Amino acid sequence: MSKVIVVDNGGGLIKAGQGGERDPTTILPNCMYRPLSSKKFQHCHPINATATVTEDLTSASIRRPIDRGYLINPDLQRDIWAHLFSNLLRINPTHHSLLLTEPLFTLPSIQRSTDELVFEDFNFTSLFVADSPSLVHLYEASRRPYSLISKAQSSLVLDCGFSFSHAAPVFQNFTINYGVKRIDLGGKALTNYLKELVSYRSLNVMDETFLIDEVKEKLCFVSLDVPRDLQIARKTGKDNLFRCTYVLPDGVTHMKGFVKDPQAARRYLSLPDGATHRPLEIETDMDQPEVIEIAEDRKKVDFTKNEFDLTNERFLVPEMIFHPADLGMNQAGLAECVVRAVNACHPHLHPVLYESIILTGGSTLFPQFAQRLEMELRPLVPDNYQVKITTQEDPILGVWRGGSLLASSPDFEAMCVTKADYEEQGSARCRRRFFH
Amino acid sequence: MEDDSSNPFRRMSSRTRKVASKMAAALASTDNRTQAALARLDALENDNVGIETVEINSNDEDSFDDDDQVYLQKKQSKGSKRKTRQAKALENARKAPRTFLELLHEANLESLPSHVPSYLRAAVGPPNSSSRRRFCSVCGFTSNYTCVKCGMRFCSRRCQSIHNDTRCQKFVA
């Protein structure tokens, strides 16, 4: 039996590793970049490796093989995969099976080019294509064997990824495809939105995708009461709990940007209804001295120009995913998306689905995301149903772990399409085996 | 190309402003506000603008992989018949990866019967329970006023003048 390689080919990050393991071997940005100083596009470094290599990412141009969640540039993907398989995973694809994730509703033409990539360019012995909601469900159900999710064999997976957000009902390990609802907003659009706001209001950062990505991850959060927070963000001086400064890398002493005062950046958690976060705050007080030392040290350096302030942007950016209409997009927000996905299913499933909502995907990592979702969801759900939102301990890796679990199951081999099948029947017929 | 015609009272310097082609088209059409809004949403999904064309040009000039070898040989065999710029552009367009929207259009999902779930039917659709909230395009706070020229929002006189100076009808991409 050949070993299985599990690849969660996301729009933002590729998560890849051996099936059966707990964590992926490599997490690689799914793009190639070209720094200002070079003419050629280069491969990104995996983000979970020891960060000894310093890359110059300032004003780098980026090419991604995936647009709006779907693989549109197979040539570029081939380059990235070749780098991934030979240099990072160090495997020979001809001796391995592949478990690949694919977004829901992939167009037939894209499926065909994916198959060509897997079988003709890389010569994998066999392929299994899975969709991410069912893998997340599988993982959560196996982690908590006595929970409702695994007893009822159904859940609602809310996947806010890089390119879009899906609310997908899962029943008996299969995604109910007529119930899936999608919002065309994900981490990429949020980063670009933040980029646009910062560029208009303070500094032109339109080319600094990697930098703004980091700013977004470090400083953005989901507001629990937008009008109140807007009022607070208006205040000046110390009353303004949200204002914080991000220092840009100067290329000499700091190769990476950082938050000027990390303590101040967390002040929003002390707001009244952030009650559940109190313990967390005490925790941060404990390591306060260390943090301040760093802050003092960094404050000495005089950055006159290389920094920008963020105030209301910090919560208005993630806000867009809850209210895409604010951007001028004619789409409902996350809470309504969940309700519509549930309503598309059989009424007997409704109470179970509301009680087993699983959050996954990198965009759910914004602080207070789950709380806000529950606040918005509760008024929309009938009184006699419970709403329970489960967060994954690592939402980025949730899909991969489910895939790894599936790959280690004994009947995995039987579910795959082999290269011989593909050569005999072609792409379209093989695809029917995966029921989507 | 300039929007002077739409706005004759505003005196402009004679130096041309760089206007993105999509935006220029949007300005020319009758319902330009919606088109501008759509183009802006589209921009949220972009990486670095205009990167693909740059890449292809440089590829043609300084790297010689198999494709180009064939291309060069063909060129030489044809002798005096040179490739026109248009033909070259066509070739580039063929080589360039198509965008997802083009592929989507090609897949012709509208022709499927209405009960088949597809990419198009999976979109959530318009919101029911909430309407659009307006934020000032300059400072981000709640805004009460709309710019009469371009339809963007602002919240105060101060923001209005900033908007007029920097953003009103200046769509630079």
From TrEMBL, chain A:
<dbReference type="InterPro" id="IPR043129">
    <property type="entry name" value="ATPase_NBD"/>
</dbReference>
<keyword id="KW-0539">Nucleus</keyword>
<dbReference type="Pfam" id="PF00022">
    <property type="entry name" value="Actin"/>
</dbReference>
<dbReference type="GO" id="GO:0030029">
    <property type="term" value="P:actin filament-based process"/>
</dbReference>
<comment type="similarity">
    <text>Belongs to the actin family. ARP6 subfamily.</text>
</comment>
<dbReference type="GO" id="GO:0005634">
    <property type="term" value="C:nucleus"/>
</dbReference>
<protein>
    <recommendedName>
        <fullName>Actin-related protein 6</fullName>
    </recommendedName>
</protein>
<dbReference type="InterPro" id="IPR004000">
    <property type="entry name" value="Actin"/>
</dbReference>
Automatic annotation (TrEMBL), chain B:
<dbReference type="GO" id="GO:0006338">
    <property type="term" value="P:chromatin remodeling"/>
</dbReference>
<keyword id="KW-0863">Zinc-finger</keyword>
<dbReference type="InterPro" id="IPR039723">
    <property type="entry name" value="Vps71/ZNHIT1"/>
</dbReference>
<dbReference type="InterPro" id="IPR007529">
    <property type="entry name" value="Znf_HIT"/>
</dbReference>
<keyword id="KW-0479">Metal-binding</keyword>
<protein>
    <submittedName>
        <fullName>Zf-HIT domain-containing protein</fullName>
    </submittedName>
</protein>
<dbReference type="Pfam" id="PF04438">
    <property type="entry name" value="zf-HIT"/>
</dbReference>
<dbReference type="GO" id="GO:0008270">
    <property type="term" value="F:zinc ion binding"/>
</dbReference>
<dbReference type="GO" id="GO:0005634">
    <property type="term" value="C:nucleus"/>
</dbReference>
<feature type="domain" description="HIT-type">
    <location>
        <begin position="136"/>
        <end position="168"/>
    </location>
</feature>
<keyword id="KW-0862">Zinc</keyword>
<feature type="region of interest" description="Disordered">
    <location>
        <begin position="1"/>
        <end position="31"/>
    </location>
</feature>
